[in-house]
Amino acid sequence: MSDINQFTITEAVKDSFKTEPGSRFETLLHGLLDHLHDYTREMQVTHEEWMGVLNFLYDCGQISTPERHEFILLSDVLGFSALVDMINTRGGATEGSNLGPFYLDNAPEKTLGADLGDGREGVTVLVYGKVTDSLHNPLPGAIVDTWQADGAGTYPIQEQEMGQDKMDLRGKFTCDESGRYYYTTVLPKPYTVPYDGPVGRLLRAGDRHAWRPAHLHYIIRHPGMAAITTEIFFENAEYVDNDAVFGVRKSLVARVKPAKNVAELGFELAKKPDAMFEYDFILAPED
Amino acid sequence: MSDINQFTITEAVKDSFKTEPGSRFETLLHGLLDHLHDYTREMQVTHEEWMGVLNFLYDCGQISTPERHEFILLSDVLGFSALVDMINTRGGATEGSNLGPFYLDNAPEKTLGADLGDGREGVTVLVYGKVTDSLHNPLPGAIVDTWQADGAGTYPIQEQEMGQDKMDLRGKFTCDESGRYYYTTVLPKPYTVPYDGPVGRLLRAGDRHAWRPAHLHYIIRHPGMAAITTEIFFENAEYVDNDAVFGVRKSLVARVKPAKNVAELGFELAKKPDAMFEYDFILAPED
C-alpha cells in the first residue's frame, strides 16, 4: 500500500476528488486545499487550536437563522466580502461594496423628488446625481434601488415587531432623460453589526469595535450594463476611517453640504432639504 | 482618508486587530488572513462562488447538533484532521490518527485477557502487543483505552435507542509488568461517515465514497509519556487504501492471522480466538 505523510497528504486529498480536469470546481477546491494545508503545516497547528477553529464555526452555525447569517458576518469583519467586491468591480465603473443583510428586491417604486424619510426624525438631505457610462454619457431610465438606516442607525426591517414598516426608507427611482436621480431622505446614522455571537467574541479578542459608518445602500441597473451593488459614505463622518466590515473606499465617499441654491438644480421636491449630497454612479457594459 | 484596494486590504484587516505582537493568536490570525486573502485574489472568486462557500458553512451549521459536528466531518474528509494528527506526532512515537466522534472518557476498566466483544456476532480476534518507549523498554502500567465498531460496522453508542449499551465494545486495560496488553474482541467492519448532509453533498460532487476501513481506536497513556490517540487498521482490508478521512498510515496497519500456537503466548483468555492480531505501541516522553 502507498503511505501518506504531512507533505504528501495534500495531493492525496486532491486525488480523492474525481473532478473534471481544469473545471472551476477543481480549481477552487485544489486552491483551497493548497492554501489551507500549507497554512496548517506552516503554523504547526495543534489539536487544541484546530478544535478551536472547528468549534468557532460550530458556534457560528448554531447562532445562524434564516434572518441571521453569522458566516456572512464573519466574512465581512475579516475583509473577505470587501475583497470579493473589489475583485469583481469592473474597470471604469463605480466601485462595489457590501450588499449587507437588509436588501429587499421588491422595494416600492418612487417618483423622482419624493421623500424617502417616511417621517423619521433627523436631518433632511437632498440626495442627487447622475447615472452614466464611463464616457459620462447619461443612462436615462437607469434604476436606482436604494435602502438605508434611519436617523438613529436602525433599518425599519429590524423593528417590524415594534410596528415599523419594512418597506420604509427604501425605494426604486427611475432616472430622467438626463440620467439624473434625486430625492430627499433622512440622513442615516452609524450602527453596529451584531456582536452578541461568535463574531462578536472575535472582535473583542482583537479589541475591535462593531461600528459601521453611516451609509446609503444602492443597486444600480440599466439594460446592457453590469449592475453595481455599492454603498455611499459621508466625508469625515464617524467610523468612515475604520468601518468594521471594510466597506469604505475613497471613491465612495462624498461631502454632505448645507442645502444652498437648491432651486437652481430644477428638481421638484416633496420636502425641503436641510442638506445636500451629490454622487454620480458609473456603469460598465455587461460582458 | 486612506484608501484600500484588493492588494492593501489584507494588511488593513490585520491592523484592525489589536493583537499582542508575536502572540500565537496574532500569528494564527495573520497567517489565515494571508493565505485565504491570497486564495480569494488568485482565484478571482465571484460573488456567487463566495456565497456558495458561506452557504455551505451555514448548511453545515444547521445540521450540527451536540451529537453531530459537521465541521469536524468536513475537516476529516478534507484531510485536515489527519494533517493535524501528522504534525503533532512525536518523533519515535506511534503515529497519531483520528479520535473520531465516539470516544467516551469513562470506559469501564477491564482485566487483561477479557473479551470485549460483548456477545456481538463475528470473528473473535485476539488483540495483543506491547507498550514501550522508543528504545523498546516496556512501560508496565500503561493504560490501553480502546473502542471500536462491531462485526456489522456499528458503534453501540449509535444504537442506544435500539437497546445497545454505549459502554459495550470499549474498555481500559492496564499493561502487565512486561508492558503487554491482550484481550479478545469481535473483528470490526467498515462503516460510512454520515453523508446525508452538506459534507455528503461535497463527497458526491467529487464522486467520493464515505467509507472508512475497519479499525480499532486507541488512546495510550503512561505517566511521564505523551499520550497518543490513534487507530489501527488491517492489512489488505476493504477501503484501507482509500479511507474517506485519510486516517490510515502504513505504520498503523498490521495483518490479522489465523489463531495459531496461542497457548505459547501465555495469556489467560476468557474466550477462544479464531484470529490473532499483534500491534506494539511506542510512546515518547512528555515535553
Quick recap:
The structure is a homodimer of 287-residue chains. Chain A has 287 residues and is of the alpha/beta class.
Describe the protein in words.
Two copies of one chain form a homodimer. Chain A has helices at residues 9-16, 24-43, 47-63, 70-77, 80-87, 198-205; strands at residues 124-133, 143-148, 170-174, 180-186, 191-192, 211-212, 215-221, 228-234, 253-254, 257-258, 275-278, 281-283. Helices cover 24% and strands 20% of the residues of chain A. Chain A folds into two domains: 9-45; 80-283, Protocatechuate 3,4-Dioxygenase, subunit A (Sandwich), CATH 2.60.130. Chain A is of the alpha/beta class. At the A-B interface, α1, α2, α3, α4 and α5 of A face α1, α2, α3, α4 and α5 of B. Chains A, B: Keywords: Dioxygenase, Iron, Metal-binding, Oxidoreductase. Chains A, B: One of its GO terms (molecular function) is catechol 1,2-dioxygenase activity. Chains A, B: This is Intradiol ring-cleavage dioxygenase. Chains A, B: Its cofactor is Fe(3+).
What features would you highlight for this structure?
homodimer; 287 residues; alpha/beta; Protocatechuate 3,4-Dioxygenase, subunit A; 2 domains; 5-stranded mixed sheet; 6 helices; 12 strands; iron (chains A, B)
Instruction: Assign the structural class of chain A, choosing from mainly alpha, mainly beta, alpha/beta, alpha+beta, or little secondary structure.
Output: alpha/beta
The helix content of chain A, as a percent range, equals 10-25%
Q: Quick one: biggest sheet of chain A? A: 5 strands, mixed
Number of E-type strands of chain A: 12
Shape of chain A: globular
